[in-house]
Amino acid sequence: MSGKDWSTTELSVLYDVFYECGTRLGGEYVSLAYAAEDAGDAEAVEFWDEQGRLLQNERQAVDPNDRAMIVATMKQWDRTLQLLRYARAARPASAAA
């Protein structure tokens, strides 16, 4: 998604895509918090919950009319999601929750 040219996408559609990108990343944070909870790691639960709150704040701070900021934020979120997924896949099976 990061390499897509969003310059001609209608702004309302772009904002919907942006919002969904945040939802996907937020879902990953929730999944990580649940895994931490299952592992009995209260500190990690709080960390991932905080990441979700920060994501919500970041999403609310983006002006729905600022195409450049919407696209930049989507790229950042996509990269973060990609890194989290690679990190999960790289863990040994015994460490996976």
Can you offer a commentary on this structure?
By secondary structure, the chain is mostly helical. Helix content is 74%, strand content 0%. The chain contains three helices and no strands. It has helices spanning 11-38, 42-61, 67-90. The radius of gyration is 15 Å and the shape is elongated.
Spell out the blueprint of helices and strands.
Elements: H1 11-38, H2 42-61, H3 67-90
Helix pairs in contact: 1-2, 1-3
Key words describing this protein structure:
97 residues, mainly alpha, 3 helices, 74% helix
Taken in chain order, the helices and strands follow as HHH
DSSP strand count: 0
Shape: elongated
Q: In percent terms, what proportion of residues is strand?
A: under 5%
Largest sheet: none
Tally the helices: 3
What is the terminal separation in angstroms? 28 Å
Helices and strands: which structural class? mainly alpha
**What's the rounded overall pLDDT mean?**
93
Amount of helix: over 70%
Multimeric organization? single chain
- Report low-confidence residues grouped into runs of 5 or more: none
Rg over C-alpha atoms, rounded to the nearest angstrom: 15 Å
Briefly characterize the structure.
The protein is mostly helical and about 100 residues long.
